[in-house]
Amino acid sequence: MREDVRKEFLPLVSKTWWFMTWLTRTFGILLLLVAFLLILGLPIVLSNKTVLFIIVAVVYYPALAFGLYRFILYQKKIRKRVVRKIVVDDLGIHYERADGTIDEILYSNLEKYYFSDEYDISITPRRKTYVLQVYENGSVKEVDFDGMEAGYTSYIGNLKTLRRRYIQGIVYFRPDVRINPWVYDVYYINPVDFTFDHKKFWIALGQTFAVMIVCCLILGAIMLGLIKWLF
Question: pTM value?
Answer without folding.
Answer: 0.74
